[in-house]
Amino acid sequence: MYPEEPVEEIWSRLALFQSRDVLERRYKAHHGGELSAGKADEIIAHLQQARQYFESAESAGILAGPLEQYYGVLAFARAIVLYRQTRQREATLTRSHGLDALLPDGGSPEDIQITVTNGTFYELLRATDNSETVSIDLPSPGTVTTAQRFYQILPTPELGSRFSLVDLVSRIPGVKEHFEQAFGTVAHCHFGRAHFFQSSFSTTVWRGDLPLPPLDQLRESLGISPSASGTVTPNDSADFRVQLKPGDRLPDYFPGVVELETSAHVFLERFPGGWSLSRIGSYFAASHAISMLVRYHPTRWAKLVNHAPGDKLMPVLDRLRHLIQSDFVRIGLRELERSEPTS
Length: 343
Known about the structure:
Elements: H1 7-14, H2 20-31, H3 37-59, H4 65-84, E1 99-102, E2 113-116, H5 120-128, E3 131-139, E4 145-153, E5 162-164, H6 165-169, H7 176-183, E6 189-197, E7 200-205, H8 215-222, E8 229-232, E9 238-243, E10 257-259, E11 265-268, H9 279-296, H10 298-305, H11 314-337
Antiparallel strand pairs: 1-2, 2-5, 3-4, 6-7, 6-11, 7-9, 8-9, 10-11
C-alpha cells in the first residue's frame, strides 16, 4: 500500500530528480552505470517542463487547460523513458506522440477512436513494462498474515491496436463510479480482492450497484485461468478459485489487477484483442484524446463544457482531468523511484 500524498509533496520529491548530484547517484544505483552530463540535463529539463505545464493547466481555464495538461503528461513521460532506458537520449526519442485520436464525422466525443502508433506512448509502455504492482496476503503458519508485493506485466497492445474513448475510460479505476452513473452500464473494471490461502488462489469480484457480467464472460475478459472454478456468491459477487500444485508460480494465475493507494484491488477487463493498459498508460491515452478534442474540435468541447444536450461524458472527463493532475504525477514518481522487482 502506498500513502496518497498531496500533489505538492509529490512535486517536492520530484525536485530531488532535478538535482544533478541526487539524480546521478540514483541513476547509478538503479542502472549500475554513470549518468552523462548531457543525459542528466535532458532528464532534468523534461521534468522542469512537465511541472510548468501542470502548473499552467491548474491555473488555465477549462477550455484550454487540458491541452496544457497533456503537454505536461508528454514531458513527464519522456523524462521517465530517458531515466529508465539507458540507451535513450533526447535525440533518439520518437517525435511522434504514439497515438492517433480521431473524432468520426457526426460522432459524439465518446466515439473518439484511438490508434496505437510508434511514438512516446509506446516508449512509455516499454520503459515501465506496462506494469502494475499488487500486494497479496500470504498467511503464514499460525495466525500471522503477511502481504507480499508482486510485479505484474500486463499484455501490451501491438502497434495498430484501436480502441474508443469509452473503451478506455470504462477501464480506469478512478472513474468507475462516474462512468457507471453517466452511462448507466457497468464499467469494465471491478472492485474485489485477490487472496491466497492453503495453496488456493482466489479472485473475488464484488458486485456493485450494477450486476456483473456472466461468469464465463468475466473469466475471459479478466484473463482468469481456465482451470479456476467459478461460482456466484449469495450477494451476486463472482469468485474464481484455483488450487496451486507444487512448482506453480502464484503470479501466473493473476488476472489484470491494480492496487489503489487505499490498498483496494481493482480487476481490469482486457481490451478487445486481449491486451491491457497500466494506469500510467491509460492516463496518457486519455489525456491525449481529450487534448485532441480541445485542439481540433474547440466548438464541440465548448458545448460539452457548457452542458449542451449529450453531455453525459463531461463528469467523467472532469474526474479524469483531476486524476491526471494528481495520480499520473504520483505514479510517474513511483516509476522513477522503484527498483527492479524481485517477484
